[in-house]
Amino acid sequence: MSRIAAGALIFLVVAGMTAVATAGTVELSPFYGWRFGGDMVDYYYGDRYNLDDASAYGLAIDIELDPYDETWIEVRWSHQQTELNTTNPDVGRLDLGIDYFHIGGLKAFGDHGDNFVPYGVGTLGATHFNPDAGFGSDTRFSFGLGGGVKLMFAKRVGVRLEGRVLGTYFPSRNCRVPPHDSILRYHREGRKGDYRFA
Fold first, then answer.
1. Any idea what the CATH number is for the domain that residue 28 is in?
2. pLDDT tens across 96-113, in order?
3. Which domain holds residue 96?
4. Which one is predicted more confidently, 16 or 31?
């Protein structure tokens, strides 16, 4: 088991134990879905980067704070294994693992016990990037905003249909796409082909 997977397991188990100790209702929601990639430009070197679309999976633990107000605390971990493509021929195509560790709030809109419950959710936390060997990993502040609906088939069984936007903060020295300080930045060590994430 990798250190990231072990850390995620410990993070979720501790959160779950806390939830059981402090609240009457706890929802466990394993999930599987699809995460879209995106494009970025390194203005310092002129290279383009593209993250491939890929599947994602994880676990959300929701702790009910007020059954009448339908407010919850959410602890969430998700993982995506994707590929990073770049126009830089010395980097080329790179396997990249991305883990999100978040905590935040969920607000449901409906009456307690409804079978159809729309909701909104917002979270804050960290994104951990783990590229192929030869590149260093990196962890950055991130956020998530989303919404969806809970479809309850029974009192304790249901599904969640959800869409979520995840953003990761990269400090920049100017107001455009960061040229230096990002997971997409590499550092020239003095010889061709020797790069690392910074």
1. 2.40.160
2. 999 999 999 999 997 777
3. 3-168
4. 31
